[in-house]
Amino acid sequence: MAEREPGQDPGGEDARLQSLDERLKQAQHDEAVRTGAAQKGQDENYRLGNRVLAELIGGIAGGALIGWVIDRFAGTSPWGLLVVMFLGIIVAFRNIIRISNQRPK
Question: Is residue 87 part of a domain?
Answer without folding.
Answer: yes
